[in-house]
Design brief:
The protein has 282 residues and is an alpha/beta fold. The chain contains 11 helices and 8 strands. 50% of the residues lie in helices and 12% in strands. α4 (96-101) links the parallel β5 and β6 (111-116). The longest helix has 30 residues, at 170-199.
Length: 282
């Protein structure tokens, strides 16, 4: 089986690492704009050989794992070149625009819109991890528009990698992911910014930072090159989420200003149920 991965960083590299370990007689072909990343992926062993778009005609599976703005350009080009038996899927954090872009492509049946909810704050081929997706949710959109052979191959692959499958409309996906993922990253970046600006005047502030601060700003280590186009593509949903988040912060500030300690306690107590909601995810 010839598997092509476009983008050999954390997600693409982790996927093909597990595919190599799970499927016999699989050759992983790597395509990446950064030659150094490709050489590193080959040296680490999860890519067997470098390749180009010209060879996509031989692909059984193509995984697109690049920033979402690049995916918009790359996906139609990939569908132009693959056979009608190939499975093509991406791993991007936005789905509606992408599904609309290739809606009428002649090879639309080759494509499956997926979003595996897994990752770390690190990037690049050295960040790739085995079993990153085991037990994690993989959201699939518009599966009815994917050909039956491609659908069966994809579901078998995801099952073997230990993923849980969830089906969702692309619009609903983008709306909900704005709250549970995109807003989290913005919060981390802006908390980090706030503390860094304070640190300019108080040099010992980071000496006081404990594990709570470190875990809260962990996502601020994420790649701006990846997240800027995500924020752009999902702008309307993210702005809605930000408005609600800012409203909650403003209300909390007002409670503090008014010394309404019991109300503050109740706000936090009611939010404690997040422990039950997230049970089994962490």
């Amino acid at each position: 089986m010839n598997v092509f991965v476009i983008g050999v960083g954390l997600i693409g590299g982790s996927l093909v690492t597990d595919i190599k370990a799970t499927f016999d007689n699989t050759v992983i072909h790597g395509i990446d704009a950064n030659d150094e990343n490709l050489e590193t992926a080959i040296s680490l062993g999860f890519v067997d050989k470098s390749s180009t778009f010209a060879n996509l005609k031989d692909a059984d599976i193509v995984i697109i794992s690049v920033p979402v703005d690049i995916t918009e350009i790359v996906l139609p080009q990939v569908l132009d070149k693959v056979s009608d038996k190939c499975l093509v899927f991406d791993v991007g954090s936005t789905k509606e625009r992408l599904c609309n872009i290739i809606e009428h492509h002649t090879n639309r049946a080759c494509y499956l819109a997926t979003h595996p909810i897994a990752g770390t704050e690190f990037s690049g081929p050295k960040a790739a991890l085995a079993n990153l997706f085991r037990g994690k949710t993989n959201i699939i959109c518009e599966i009815e528009k994917t050909g039956h052979p491609q659908r069966e191959l994809a579901l078998d692959l995801f099952n073997r990698l230990g993923m849980r499958i969830s089906y969702m409309d692309p619009f609903e996906h983008d709306k909900h992911i704005a709250y549970v993922s995109h807003l989290s990253h913005i919060s981390a970046f802006m908390l980090g910014k706030t503390v860094i600006e304070k640190e300019k005047n108080e040099r010992d502030i980071f000496d006081m930072a404990g594990s709570g601060f470190a875990s809260t700003v962990r996502l601020a280590k994420s790649s701006p090159a990846m997240w800027t186009p995500i924020f752009h593509q999902n702008k309307e949903n993210i702005i809605d989420a930000l408005d609600e988040y800012i409203d909650n912060l403003t209300e909390f500030k007002k409670l503090m200003q008014a010394n309404r300690n019991e109300a503050i306690f109740n706000e936090m107590k009611s939010t404690n149920r997040i422990k039950d909601i997230l049970k089994g995810i962490e």
